[in-house]
Amino acid sequence: MQYWSRGGLCFFLVKSLSTKELHLFDGDQGPCLMERGLKGGTGQVYANPAALFTALRPRLLNHYSNVCDPAP
Questions:
Q1: Whole domain around residue 41: which residue ranges?
Q2: What is the number of domains present in the chain?
Q3: pTM for the model
Q4: Residue 3 to residue 5: CA distance in whole angstroms
């Protein structure tokens, strides 16, 4: 979680055993997930890996374009 606190990009990816959906949580959701499971965190739900990566790509590009080429 320290990496997340310093502006790093990290996620928790969990596959639901009952629904087979993929749940993506930001890195700061670790304590909530540990205490309360999937219902404890705030994240996005995806039906399959293709939907997950379609949604994740813009977030990654935005983050790394800001980190690698910061505005003057």
A1: 2-68
A2: 1
A3: 0.71
A4: 5
What span, in angstroms and rounded, lies between the C-alpha atoms of 52 and 36? 23
In the block, tokens 């813009």 appear at 58
Amino acid at 68: C
Q: How confident is the model at residue 52 (pLDDT cuts 50, 70, 90)?
A: very high
Which residue type is seen at 70? P
Measuring CA to CA, which residue among 60, 58, 36, 37 is closest to residue 14?
A: 37
- For the chain, the DSSP string reads -HHHHTT---EEEEE-TTT--EEEEEGGGHHHHHHHGGGGS-EEEESSHHHHHHHHHHHHHHHHHHHHS---
Backbone angles phi, psi at 27, to 5 degrees: -60, -20
Query: Do 12 and 41 contact (CB within 8 A), yes or no?
Result: yes
pLDDT at 2: 59
